[in-house]
Amino acid sequence: MIQLYYWPTPNGHKITMFLEEAGLPYEIHPVDISAGDQFKPDFLAFSPNNRMPAIIDREPADGGEPITVFESGAILVYLAEKTGKFLPRDIRGRKTVLEWLFWQVGGLGPMAGQNHHFGIYAPEKLPYAISRYVNETNRLYGVLDRRLEGRSFIAGDELSIADMACYPWIVPWKRQQQDLSAFPNVERWFKAIAERDATHRAYARGEPYAARPAVTEDGKKILFGQNAANTAQPGGRTADNRR
Record's Gene3D superfamilies (predicted)? Predict the structure, then answer.
């Protein structure tokens, strides 16, 4: 059984997509990031970056003690190796999937995330910042579009963890101020992933949590006001502001 510490964000959806595709039993432990659940001591014990998703594998392949994994890319690799699915075993195929997985975790995710922040959440609309991240997101869509030309999936003919990593970050293309039709290969691939039964099931698992109210001002302070000092203690509070 996999215990998944989760909230319905793009990074959270990556993991439910894998688990549903692989048919691996799991249970969701919600981590309400707007309420500060990511700072609870029991969560920080195995997710020290105070971010979800994270997992606890109660039945690791070696039969030993439970294994914890944090960071969505690392979780995808761990689960792929555990199940023998969605990550080729040949050196060239594996290399390609890992390249595109790291492309997502190092590029598409962070750039689209900044796009979301400055376009939606930032208290001050900064034209330069908005333009910077909208344009960089657009560039990355172009990279992905060229990669998908003549390919069913990112790494070739087979679905892989690279597709599961990238798809949730394309779902919010409208709020990223992108035109999906301008990237025909991405649009074709996107529709094919969206139509998969496992994708439907994965996103349905997040619906009870996605129905939460809009992020409050207090929630924004938790999400966007973190630094080394104010995340040093449980609950994201220092000794001076525990009230």
Answer: 1.20.1050.10, Glutaredoxin
Average pLDDT over residues 121-137: 96
How many Å apart are CA 96 and CA 209, to the nearest integer?
34
Structural contact between residues 61 and 80, judged by C-beta atoms closer than 8 angstroms: no
Domain that holds residue 180: 91-195
Q: Is the domain of 16 the same as that of 67?
A: yes
Distances (CA, A) of 104 to 74, 95, 111, 141, 212: 12, 14, 10, 11, 27
Contact 101, 18 (CB under 8 A): no
- Prediction pTM value: 0.91
- List of E strands, the chain: 2-6, 26-30, 54-57, 67-70
112 & 157 share domain: yes
119 and 146 share a domain?
yes
220 and 131 share one domain: no
Instruction: Determine the longest span between alpha carbons in the chain, in angstroms.
Output: 58
